[in-house]
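pasting for ref
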Amino acid sequence: MKKIAIAAGAGILLVIVLFGWWVFSRPERGTTGSVSTNFRWLGPNDKIVVDGFDDPKVQGVACHLSRAQTGGVKGGMGLAEDTSDASIACRQVGPIRIVGELKDGERVFDEHRSLVFKTLQVVRFFDRERNVLVYVSYSDRVIAGSPQNSISTVPIMSWPAP
């Protein structure tokens, strides 16, 4: 019985070490910058992280998303659940060219905010009447999502030739 407990403990420790290695070795996708918001004695500080990304189906549009990231030991290992706070700003950065069919509510960005159940998403809508792209960021969970959201609009306009 004692050998089984030792083997189980060693297995759990191995999983924790490998998962921690995976979390720390992941490249950050498009991170523009971050600012520390709360000092932590152990593990990384809490911070606000800003990521930049391009809409995969709309060339000429860039978005920046800021969100809170929990630090500490649990945050450093990827086990903490981050808050639903996020803000988005999207802008036209060149001539707009739509590649493929745009579907309302189509996901253009997502990121896990907890180990399993919570996801931060950005979805796109096309307001055809006003010729405007609308981007909405929000968090959802398997059981209950959050009403916190942020919105940004990009009017589709001609771009001056160089």
